[in-house]
Write a structure and sequence with these properties.
Blueprint (H helix, E strand, L loop, with lengths): L4 H19 L19 E3 L2 E12 L9 E9 L9 E6 L7 H6 L7 E6 L14 H8 L7 H22 L8 H15 L4 E5 L3 H11 L4 E6 L11
Parallel strand pairs: 4-5, 4-6, 6-7
Antiparallel strand pairs: 1-2, 2-3, 3-5
Length: 236
């Protein structure tokens, strides 16, 4: 999934805010940050040699880390400004299902930060979810049921699609919740060699940021979230 023109404009506008915010934030680079991206084997992306791509391993199930691993896809656009590099900025466009890798490939850069896009587990260059395209099309054909009969048909289509995706994908299908993605984000932060996380999340990426903040409140340097919701409210 590639960002729309509207999203690209929002990204550009946010960069101006980020530049001012980060410039005003005192920062002492940790010693580990001198080794940019240690633990990550960055290579030119086959389709964009001016952008670096890589994958890192993550546990399939963080509660049982010996039950196998998956891959998380990354892309890096190095800081473009002439001044001193500050650090890395992890970004995700949300979705769910949006590709942070494609966001970086589509030209999202920052003068003082290496912009790091990641594909959440199940998406794009990460270990993917696999589904029958015909069942996806059948479910999407009734995106807005007009009556109870169409609603029941949509439920049946969803159930068939869910069963098919679980069968084709395997164990990963049941380990794609947001809190697991938060652990992937922390794993990315450590692999980058950054002392604290700089994060920009759009749309569903907001929820990733919120839950990261709950899990790792002392690992945040700066965080920008564009769609905050109060999850204590129990109605729409």
């Amino acid at each position: 999934m590639r960002p729309t023109h509207h999203l690209a404009k929002r990204l550009a506008a946010t960069l101006a805010v980020l530049a001012a915010t980060f410039a005003a934030t005192a920062f002492t680079a940790p010693a580990a940050a001198a080794e940019t991206g240690r633990g990550i084997d960055w290579q030119p992306c086959p389709d964009r040699p001016d952008i670096d791509c890589a994958t890192i391993e993550a546990p399939l199930d963080y509660d049982h880390p010996r039950r196998g691993t998956i891959e998380i896809g990354l892309a890096r656009a190095e800081a473009t400004g002439p001044g001193e590099r500050i650090g890395s900025l992890l970004v995700d466009p949300g979705g769910p299902g949006g590709s942070g890798v494609d966001t970086v490939k589509d030209g999202f850069t920052h003068p003082a930060f290496d912009v790091i896009g990641f594909d959440p587990r199940g998406v794009n260059t990460s270990t993917p979810v696999k589904c029958d395209p015909a069942l996806v099309q059948a479910a999407n054909a009734i995106a807005h049921p007009a009556d109870q009969a169409e609603f029941e048909t949509r439920l049946e289509a969803n159930a068939a699609l869910t069963d098919d995706c679980r069968t084709r994908t395997g164990p990963l299908f049941d380990h794609m919740d947001t809190r697991t993605t938060v652990e992937d984000m922390e794993r990315i932060r450590r692999a980058l060699g950054e002392g604290d996380l700089n994060y920009l999340g759009y749309s569903y990426g907001t929820l990733m940021g919120q839950q990261y903040a709950e899990r790792y409140p002392h690992r945040i340097r700066a965080m920008v979230l564009d769609g905050n919701l109060d999850h204590a409210v129990d109605t729409a």
